[in-house]
Amino acid sequence: MGDKHATERLDAGAEGIARAAALLESGALVALPTETVYGLAGRADRVETVAAIYRAKGRPDFNPLIVHVPDLAAAERIARFDDRARMLADRFWPGPLTLVLPMEGGAPVAAAVTTGLPTVALRCPAHPVMQEVLAAAGVPLAAPSANRSGAVSPTTAGHVLASLDGRIDAVLDGGPCEAGVESTIVAPRAAGWQLLREGPIAREVLVDLLGEPLPISAKRIEAPGQLAQHYSPGKPVRLEARSAGADEFMIGFGGVPGDCSLSPTGDLAEAAARLYECLHLAAASSKAGVAVAPVPDTGIGRAINDRLRRAAA
Ligand code: TXA
Ligand code: MG
Predict the structure, then answer these.
(1) What positions does the entry give for ATP binding (predicted)?
(2) CA 100/CA 33 separation, integer angstroms
(3) Same domain, yes or no: 116 and 81
């Protein structure tokens, strides 16, 4: 597990899903599709499995993992929900919202998942294949994005294999991910809320619903998906570009054309879904650098710009 050996390719039919669930139950590492990005899943309650996730990714061990559950009832066995947290779960689960909440005593979660924090990050994904695997495996699954630490996140099974082939037990191919950027992460505080990561559920929507401001966490270590450098294509990235410079791979948007485009029509949802695909293409190209067209900083555009700034850092 996590050591060098062949990675099984599974398709998302009944047989592939049953195989993925059986592998997971036995403590193996399986990359699974979600509506945001592919996750590298393993039993959250097994110390050795969680250690193997960190090892396969080469992840710094101070960066805690998200625990995936099939529904709110399973989540409530792991963390304490107050009325506000339950309201958000009711509204957005299953879906791309992660809640950081106080962990219940005796929760089936290895300490390495939370890196010893008293809180745990929980998410109930909407992807039907992920839902089926969670139901069949019957255990909470820790699943960070299925890429080497610091690299571009995967939105296809091909991206997963490019980064982790031979380092994980299997990948379940559910096609390209729909949202394309990682879940929005929020944490309730004694007073108010904090936004730990921008994502598909836009801050405006949460602020409206909560009726209070949603400051971005200043304590970076609490959301180290927020490490300054992350999502890197491994070459210099220049933002707000109107055209490519010499030896640059151009990622276009709207009226700004490129070697590929986030969205020729300027659609932000499409741009989010294509963001990592374009960064993977830029990484694979023979060009020495990457230039990216400006993207409006509204709605899911903020999550896109957040990832682009880290790719450029
Ligand atoms: O969309 C997603 O959330 C994807 C899919 C696979 O579900 N997963 C994902 O996981 O992005 P990962 O490990 O790449 O990001 C986990 C984020 C990190 O920023 C981490 O610091 C934060 O969650 N996190 C986890 N537990 C936390 C905790 N107890 N307190 C604060 N932040 C936490
Ligand atoms: Mg990640």
Answers:
(1) 59, 63, 119, 145, 153, 197, 231
(2) 22
(3) yes
Task: Could you list the residues known to form a binding site for L-threonine, using ranges.
Answer: 36, 68, 123, 143, 183
Question: Is 284 domain-assigned?
Answer: yes
Q: Which atom of ligand 1 is nearest to the CA of 197?
A: 19
Residue 27 CA to residue 41 CA, distance in Å, equals 10
In a domain, 229, yes or no: no
Q: Are residues 197 and 290 in the same domain?
A: no
- DSSP-derived letter for residue 6 is P
Among protein residues, the one whose CA lies closest to atom 33 of ligand 1? 223
Is residue 61 a part of any domain in this protein?
yes
- Environment of ion ligand 2 (residues, CB < 5 A): 145
**Whether residue 15 is found in the same domain as residue 127:** yes
Q: What is the pLDDT of residues 224-239, one digit of tens each?
A: 455 566 788 999 999 9
Neighbouring-strand partners of residue 68: 123, 141
- As for how many domains the chain has, the answer is 2
Domain with 47 in it: what CATH number?
Answer: 3.90.870.10
- What is the domain extent for residue 168? 8-210
Is 218 domain-assigned? no
Encoded tokens for 1 = 């597990």
- 223 C-beta closer than 6 A to ligand 1: yes
3-state secondary structure 227-286: CCCCCECCCCEECCCCCCCCCEEEEEECCECCCEECCCCCCHHHHHHHHHHHHHHHHHCC
Read off the pLDDT of residues 98-145 as tens digits, 9 standing for 90 and up.
999 999 999 999 999 998 889 999 999 999 999 999 999 999 999 999
Closest-approaching ligand to the CA atom of 185: 1
Q: Assign 197 to helix, strand or coil.
A: strand
Of all protein residues, the one whose alpha carbon is nearest to atom 3 of ligand 1 is 183
Tokens of 275: 């963001």
**pTM exceeds 0.85 for this model:** yes
Does ligand 1 lie within 6 Å of residue 66's CB atom? yes
